[in-house]
Write a structure and sequence with these properties.
167 residues; mainly alpha; Arp2/3 complex 21 kDa subunit ARPC3; 72% helix; 0% strand; transmembrane; membrane; Rod shape-determining protein MreD
Amino acid sequence: MKINVISYSVQFIVLILAQVLVLNHINFLGYINPYLYVIFVLLFPVNNNRLIFLLLSFALGLTIDLFSDSGGIHAAAALTIAFIRPVVLKFCFGSVYEHHTIKFKNVDFGAKVIYFVILVLIHHFILFALEIFNLKDIILVLQKTLFSSIFTIILCLIATILFSRKT
């Protein structure tokens, strides 16, 4: 248990540092920006306390907001995907999630990709809708959501493949 807390604390800090120091400075074509920090929310263990998970997700987004001077949009987006994650887990993994036996390293790759796509698209849509906050620029919101989501999903999949523990 103590090792898990230390492991997740290190992941939390490393993802914040990677996002703030490296990934926030990547901006292809004006609207493609990766947000790798969402992988913490995506891969957090299912069987842990939900309140702690929601608080950690909010803290993660708020920390990114503090370093990015973005006024709470990352906190809102991270908290939203943390809140709706059980519904998406049930949709993507079905009975495996129902019995709380899900381990992300053991699930089917296709189901994992669908899970990542759904939550990353929702996260990015909320993020960019709050950032732009203008209905006449909905095309720009959708464009930024689509292209940044593709980049983020690819990075998340690469990170999970590279850093997954082989059993």
